[in-house]
Amino acid sequence: MAWYILRRLLQMIPVFLGATLLIYAMVFLIPGDPIKALAGEKPLTPAAEAALRARYHLDQPFIMQYLHYLKGIVTLDFGTSFSGRPVREELARAFPITIKLAFLAVLVEGFFGIVFGLIAGLRKGKLFDSTMLVASLVIIALPVFVVGYLAQFLLGVKWGIAPVTVTAKASVAELLVPAFVLGSLSFAYVLRLTRNSVAENKSADYVRTATAKGLGRRRVVTVHILRNSMIPVVTFLGADFGALMAGAIVTEGIFNIPGVGGTVYQAIIRGEPPTVVSFVTVLVVVFLLTNLAIDLLYAALDPRIRYA
């Protein structure tokens, strides 16, 4: 297992280098001059402009700029934004909030999606199954911002049972409704994925054998059906955690959450490439580590993978 983890970590290195190079190139090679955008309407003196270009390594070739950036990532020195604030402070402030929001969203979509999907799969073709399929299609058809504004208006404004916006501390209670909104689309996919996988596995030979051996209904469902149905669901949930962090910008905007999405959006508006690149790079690392965790969960769920 240790060798397997080491091999997977080594495989992540070229992926990380390629992804960061692509991100850096896309952000820093777009049209426009970030130094002139920083100056705004007030022109900079040639000396001040030269000093800023030297500070952010903009006076060097692209590959040298990337190497300076890579060195900062390795040493955890993300530089400073054009406003003069260290990017690491922005990361330390915003990422815990978005990680908490994404984690709550994954818990919501995972728990309710698996439970409802399991029941629908075991009752395939019956009323509950048909109702869940229709409900999931309705949820998939609704954009996240529609669900967000509806939840904000009904739960926050009309009924007053949830905060309309999230404060700077972003407590778990304040993030529950945004987590439901953020995970609503993925909940529908988890439900349908679990339902199809359970419906397929419940008629498998090993399930019939377990039933014929006299195992209880609960053990057959939890150990033989549900456990073997979780591999595609775990794959989706693991990949979705990173996707939720990257796609939280809409939800964070609706509920005024000071997380990654709002910070990156403001950095794009202000034209701050160091902030944008650093935040997206950390998201890449989250994706890579999440995929490693998925591979390790495979071994726990499927003995064939573990023994191989």
Number of DSSP helical runs: 15
Mean pLDDT: 80
Distance between the amino and carboxyl termini = 10 Å
Give unreliable regions as ranges: none
Kindly state the number of beta strands. 0
Tell me roughly what share of residues is in helical segments: over 70%
Structural class: mainly alpha
Listing every helix as H and every strand as E from the N terminus to the C terminus, the arrangement reads HHHHHHHHHHHHHHH
Subcellular location: Cell membrane
Main location: membrane
Family: Belongs to the binding-protein-dependent transport system permease family.
Keywords: Cell membrane, Membrane, Transmembrane, Transmembrane helix, Transport
Explained architecture:
- It is a multi-pass membrane protein.
- It is found in: Cell membrane.
- It comes from Nocardia rhizosphaerae.
- InterPro entries: BPD_transp_1_N, MetI-like, MetI-like_sf.
- It holds the Pfam family BPD_transp_1_N.
- This protein is an all-alpha fold and 308 residues long.
- Helices cover 78% and strands 0% of the residues.
- It has 15 helices and no strands.
- The chain has helices at 2-28, 34-39, 46-55, 62-74, 87-122, 127-141, 144-158, 172-182, 184-201, 205-212, 217-246, 249-254, 260-270, 273-301, 303-307.
- α5 (87-122) packs antiparallel against α6 (127-141) and α9 (184-201) runs antiparallel to α11.
- The longest helix is centred in the middle third of the chain and has 36 residues, at 87-122.
- It is globular.
- The termini are close together.
- The relative contact order is 0.13.
